[in-house]
């Protein structure tokens, strides 16, 4: 097991009818900005529950945060924060709204061009506004981590950052908020959480039996509940889904392990250039990455086959390939495409992604063996 430092200060408030309690977790006397997306929270009753929780509090609203939140939109929120002298941010919505809120919290206190937060991965952050959230879409795990991803329309870029100062002080998770979600968003959330776990798992072993079993438990839970999540408004399956998505990326699974976030790095570019949903990009890239890096990953893939997919026959290579095939079958079972061709994206289209990785000089993978030429090969396998 590698050395690690684990820190997670997020208070989780989980369950039915918890949203109206939001006010008691926000410090008294603070002027609040309520941030949300396109207005779905006004249709599903979440907005009214939040207002009950904020009764008697001083707050302003900022709406219109997009899926794959835009840098340009965040800048408008920052202007309003400074004009209104906002002291606390409350995100209400899915992971995109929360990702935007985290960036806004840091950028509102940042000296210099806020884009520098993203180009440096957040290492220059020295101060941030406090924030909390009501999460309505299980997917990103942003409700229990200090990471964020922001897109910039002007340059067609999508970049991540992280910093302990943007951990939410609290996250309210009511599974009943998922009842109004369309099947596509539920599908995306399942895939997002599933791939988050595997980017921390499908590398090579450094003797982390507990972390491996924890990851396998989240994966098996997602697989088991997926049919009910997609087909029913079932509280128990939605509750397990919401908690699994949070646990998939709250920092506990990666303690002491070797990680590989290549799938996310390539996936971000597919979103930036072609507009794929984040989860759609992950479902395309991950199988191709595993195929390309099969020799490096096959020990853990074989373990995945045995422990999660219950495949015990055959040798290590057979089991590892079965794990890849079963994962693709899982995506297809919830109507998630796994090929660039499904989105009418060609090899010629992807050259701009290869060129971007070459320009950045990116080196990725658990063995630091993936750069622009390997990205080109992986994208060909995605076709």
Topology:
Layout (H helix, E strand, L loop, with lengths): L10 E4 L17 E4 L4 H4 L2 H8 L5 E4 L8 H14 L3 E6 L1 H13 L7 H5 L11 E5 L11 E6 L4 E6 L7 E4 L9 H19 L7 H23 L3 H14 L13 H13 L3 H15 L1 H14 L8 H18 L17 H10 L11 H11 L1
Number of domains: 2
Radius of gyration: 20 Å
CATH superfamily of the largest domain: Dehydroquinate synthase-like - alpha domain
Which structural class matches the secondary elements? alpha/beta
Largest sheet: 6 strands, parallel
Instruction: Work out the helicity level.
Output: 40-55%
Order of helices and strands: EEHHEHEHHEEEEHHHHHHHHH
The portion of residues forming beta strands comes to 5-15%
- Rounded mean pLDDT is 97
Task: Examine the secondary-structure arrangement and name the CATH architecture of the largest domain.
Answer: Up-down Bundle
Produce a short descriptive summary.
The chain is 47% helix and 10% strand. With 383 residues, it is α/β, with parallel strands linked by helices.
3D architecture notes:
There is one protein chain. The chain is of the alpha/beta class and 383 residues long. The protein has two domains: 11-176, Rossmann fold; 182-382, Up-down Bundle (Dehydroquinate synthase-like, alpha domain), CATH 1.20.1090. Helices cover 47% and strands 10% of the residues. The strands form two sheets. It has a six-stranded parallel sheet with strand order 1-8-5-4-2-3, with helices on both faces. A two-stranded antiparallel sheet has the order 6-7. Helix 3 crosses helix 4 (95-107), helix 9 (262-274) crosses helix 10 (278-292) and helix 10 (278-292) packs across helix 14 (372-382). The protein is globular, with a radius of gyration of 20 Å.
